[in-house]
Design brief:
The chain is of the alpha/beta class. It contains 13 helices and seven strands. Strands 1-7-6-5-2-3-4 form a seven-stranded mixed beta sheet. It is elongated, with a radius of gyration of 22 Å.
Length: 287
Amino acid sequence: MSADEAGQQLAAHLRELRGLTGISGRDLAQRLGISQPTVSRIESGRLVPTIPVGSTWARECGGDAETVERLRRLTEEAHVEVNRFRTALRERPHLQDDIKEFEASARTVRVFQPSVVPGLLQTPEYARRVFSLFQLPYSKETLASAVAARMDRQLALYDEDRRFEFLVTEAALRWRPGPVAVLVAQLGRLAAFDTLDNVSIGLIPADAEAVTFTSHGFALYDTVDEDEDEDEPMISVETVHANLTVRTAEDVALYRQRWSLLSEMAVFGDDAAKFLADLTEHIRTLR
């Protein structure tokens, strides 16, 4: 079952439970500590409740232990979407438009990358070489389309009403998917983007004292519901076989904590500029 299917089933069950008990949406909202419009959005399937809200909803509407457990499982499934690359790429040539939608809905985008320069900061040639290394190979035409779409995503960086924050490890900065000149140009691109007022690039030196693990990359989107102007945070995690989308409040909190710890290991501003300049000069000697 997909996350969307689980979400629709969950909405139908919660709506039915409330209808059977005759509790008004306003009354239920007060019992749950949420707004009445939020109750409406949950029942329509436009918003997946947190696990505590879903469980309390079921209990307040007279659900037995079996019902509460079934709805808890549906809530978990609805919060974690698995988008398998092999399946997705049968339907469209690349997935850049999907990522662009996430970015377009967010006030703040935070990206951590331990192994490669983030896509929003890549040069066209660096991006082309990254795509060419994918296990699911691109044709010549789709490769060009994917690179163009990734470059199109970068226009968002110039929107001063939005905030972009990046944390990149030294290992990612040193990873070289081509000749030295490609990497030198890429590091120069990072330095240029770091001059934008709404962009922050933190660099994590290899010899920084570790306060957490640099396990895998992730993106944190502080998305906004335009109807209520409420934050609806979301995490995207790219694995070898699929992209995971996580919305569970407890899981989002874990990623926020990881981001905070990684930030403690990073250098910013002038220190980051010097670190990048020194690294670039070292990379040049590898020619």
